[in-house]
Amino acid sequence: MPELLPQLEDSYNQRLNLVKPSKIRSFDNQISDIEGLVKLTIGEPDFDTPDHIKKAAIKAMQQNQTHYTAQAGTAALQEAIAGYLKRHHDLVYSAHSEIVATVGATEAIYAILETLINPGDQFVIPTPAFALYEPIINLLGGEVIDVDTSETDFKLSPTVLEKVLSENARVKAVFLSYPNNPSGSTLSEEEVHALAKVIKKHHVFVISDEIYSDLTYDKQPYSIARDLPKQTIYISGVSKSYAMTGWRIGFVAAPADFIARLRKIHAFMVTCPSAIDQAAAAEAFLNGDADIDKMRFEYRERRNVLFQGLTSMGLRPLYPEGAFYLFVPVPESFQNDDELFAFRLARMAKVGVIPGSAFGNGGKGYVRLSYAASMDSIKEALRRIKTALNDGVFVND
């Protein structure tokens, strides 16, 4: 095996020193060797991709749709996305000038930030938040303003946002992600209106990551793009709602001037998404409404079982309004050490969860449980946690 020439050891992008590996994946890897572990760690739907979507991919291969596509996505996929956005979220975008198909929402996030960031630009991230935003901003030379929402019901307060934007002149964009990963909280229409009023006043972008918007249980999702179409950069994809995490199709919808710039970055990064995967995603957006309804119903049932089970044990989980995560404060004896508690839970109860500190300052002192796992796994996890609590193994002395 070749070894790197010693004189080249420091010949890399030094900003990589600011970026740490994903705490979600690294913690999951640390506990995955525990025999018999019930994993409620990764946000991976346990459902299979619906058959009609898989058949669309097979048909695309049989028709030799195995070559490059237009860089922003096939016309069929762009039109399917535009139709989905209008049908589900009352958003109107031009299929061919205001939508780009990406390699998952992950590429969408990176391409958006690469398009926006100049050195020193600031980005407001309400935490807890998906752990990908901050490292990309740091890598690209931007600065993160971490706004802890744990004292405001895990929702970004308009009053706090006004203060942050008034005191920081270099803010380029505000991140929103509701339903939220990891807390499961979401925003009502009235709450969106209040945030939009502040953002509009300060003439900044809002990057709205709505990958979980179809998995909202107790209220209808309301996108801030409806209030601020000229300032909103909208992100979503097929991974969560259609159980298509491995297909890697996401998208960005935004004003045409921004999309024209984003397309340059997107083209340099990936040329285009897989033609076969685009055909599958187009089928999902066109004919997958019933799939969303079925999975949403199942997730709601799992949420209820997990929430009620943990509550009956004396734990105090947040009641999630969307996504498929439960956020639970650690016992007081652990003094907010969520990583220690998560390790104890894995080693002594054989239940895998993710420490809340992986999601920023607002997540400290909590752990995240994913109910994208099967109902059997959820019930077994509850049985093990209850047994461990009764045995006193979670007392941190």
UniProtKB/TrEMBL annotation:
Q: Which GO terms describe its biological process?
A: amino acid metabolic process
Q: Which UniProt keywords apply?
A: Aminotransferase, Pyridoxal phosphate, Transferase
Q: Name the coenzymes or cofactors required.
A: pyridoxal 5'-phosphate
Q: Per its UniProt record, what CDD domains does this chain match?
A: AAT_like (cd00609)
Q: Name one Pfam family in it.
A: Aminotran_1_2
User: Which GO MF terms does the UniProt record name?
Assistant: pyridoxal phosphate binding; transaminase activity
Q: Which InterPro entries match?
A: Aminotransferase_I/II_large, AspAT/PAT-like, NHTrfase_class1_PyrdxlP-BS, PyrdxlP-dep_Trfase, PyrdxlP-dep_Trfase_major, PyrdxlP-dep_Trfase_small
Q: Which domain of life is it from?
A: Bacteria
Outline the extent of the Aminotransferase class I/classII large domain: 37-385
The record's similarity note reads: Belongs to the class-I pyridoxal-phosphate-dependent aminotransferase family.
**Protein name according to UniProt:** Aminotransferase
Biological source species: Fructobacillus durionis
Which lineage ranks, top first, belong to the organism behind this chain? Answer: Bacteria, Bacillati, Bacillota, Bacilli, Lactobacillales
